[in-house]
Amino acid sequence: MIRIMTQNDFQHFWPTFKEIIEQQETYAFDPDMSQQQAYALWCQKVDNAYVMAEGDEILGSYYLKANAMGPSNHICNCGYMVAPQARGKGVARTLCEHSQSEAIKLGYRAMQFNSVVASNQVAVQLWQRLGYQIIGTIPKAYRHPRLGFVDSHIMYKWLQ
Predict the structure, then answer these.
(1) How far is the C-alpha of 31 from the C-alpha of 68, rounded, in Å?
(2) What pLDDT was estimated at residue 152?
(3) What share of the chain is helix, strand, coil (3-state, %, to 5)?
(4) pLDDT digits (tens, 9 = 90+) for 111-144
(5) Residue 130 in 3-state DSSP?
(6) Which of 1, 11, 86, 108 fits as disulfide partner to 59, beta carbons 3.0 to 4.6 Å?
(7) 48, 45, 56, 42: which is closest to 4 by C-alpha?
(8) Is the dihedral of CA 36, 95, 151, 120 positive or negative?
(9) pLDDT mean across residues, the chain
(10) Would you say 111 and 157 are in contact if contact means Cβ atoms under 8 Å apart?
């Protein structure tokens, strides 16, 4: 059900990606990003990108990459997106659990989310249930289209 994302998978995932970045509620990505730019960001500048599919339907995706280099290269970073029709069905939890297993296989010892928008309480609470801690909060770090400036959390989990 979860596999390495192909370029064809990304083409099917693109409407979800585009909708999420255009809403500007959870990701600090350019809302005018092209499909090519998005593919490079999500699939090429990472260790791996994964997709969760049910038949031809893309339910969600995540990328996994090093958060830093050198002496901090044991910490990885992930980003997750879930298709609108799949929300509330455990897809994000499944993707996160899979990402932790993959991270350990790749030699990472910890996972850090650099910017979890505080108003995204569904994500914040899910990550906390999965063992992530808020290790810092950046005041007014995210310009939300409806709420104005909101805080952003740095969340962390030791995997080993």
Answers:
(1) 25
(2) 98
(3) 35, 35, 30
(4) 999 999 999 999 999 999 999 999 999 999 999 9
(5) coil
(6) 86
(7) 48
(8) positive
(9) 97
(10) yes
Amino acid at 116: V
* Domain locations along the chain: 2-158
List, in order, residues 6 or more apart from 149 with CB less than 8 Å away.
140, 141, 142, 143
Q: Are residues 27 and 21 in contact, defined by beta-carbon separation less than 8 angstroms?
A: yes
Fold category of 2-158 in CATH: Aminopeptidase (3.40.630)
From residue 87, alpha-carbon distances to 58, 117, 160 in Å are 12, 17, 29
Torsion of CA 60, 17, 140, 46, to 10 degrees: 70
pTM value is 0.95
Q: In Å, how far are 18, 22, 56, 57, 100 from 103, measured between CA atoms? A: 26, 29, 26, 25, 5
